[in-house]
């Protein structure tokens, strides 16, 4: 059984995998930073304005919107590569088409996974921010 590392998975997904990976890293970093910040505020019993707590969370919303689109871009580039390989091949074999389709499906799945993670983390952290914030009295 062949084990794969992150670099080989990134190569299989094509060039679009790198910005998707960057979005995943951004998601994890923001989620960790906000979680630690919220935990420290909760331990100290501090109340902070909601806008200050939620500001970085808008980046998670942006990641949740962008990552599926980038995944679909990977689908398009994978299909372009598949059809290019077919057009250049003397005889069409399944392996020629399959590599482009693999790239297409891999990036789509990765983009959707990142979007789901960012959406769930954004929702949970938004709820935590609401619990820790000063209540607006208008």
Count of all domains? 1
Q: Percent of residues in helical segments?
A: over 70%
Ranges with pLDDT <50 over ≥5 residues? none
The value of Rg in angstroms is 20 Å
- The number of helical segments is 5
What's the shape? elongated
Average pLDDT, all residues: 84
Structural class category: mainly alpha
What is the CA–CA distance across the termini?
A: 63 Å
What amount of the residues lies in strands? under 5%
In total, the number of strands is: 0
Give a quick account of the main beta sheet: strands, pairing sense, barrel closure.
Answer: none
Q: Which series of helices and strands comes N to C?
A: HHHHH
Topology summary:
Elements: H1 6-13, H2 17-44, H3 50-54, H4 57-88, H5 94-132
Helix pairs in contact: 2-4, 2-5, 4-5
In short:
By secondary structure, this protein is mainly α.
Structural notes for this entry:
This protein is mostly helical. It has one domain (16-132). The chain is built from five helices and no strands. α2 packs parallel to α5 (94-132).
């Amino acid at each position: 059984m062949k084990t794969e590392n992150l670099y080989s998975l990134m190569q299989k997904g094509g060039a679009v995998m790198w910005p998707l990976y960057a979005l995943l890293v951004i998601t994890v970093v923001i989620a960790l930073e906000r979680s630690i910040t919220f935990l420290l505020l909760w331990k100290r019993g501090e109340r902070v304005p909601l806008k200050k707590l939620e500001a970085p969370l808008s980046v998670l919303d942006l990641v949740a919107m962008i990552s599926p689109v980038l995944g679909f871009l990977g689908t398009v580039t994978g299909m372009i590569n598949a059809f290019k390989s077919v057009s250049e091949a003397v005889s069409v074999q399944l392996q020629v088409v399959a590599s482009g389709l693999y790239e297409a499906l891999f990036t789509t799945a990765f983009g959707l996974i990142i979007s789901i993670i960012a959406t769930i983390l954004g929702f949970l952290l938004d709820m935590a921010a609401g619990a820790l914030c000063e209540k607006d009295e208008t």
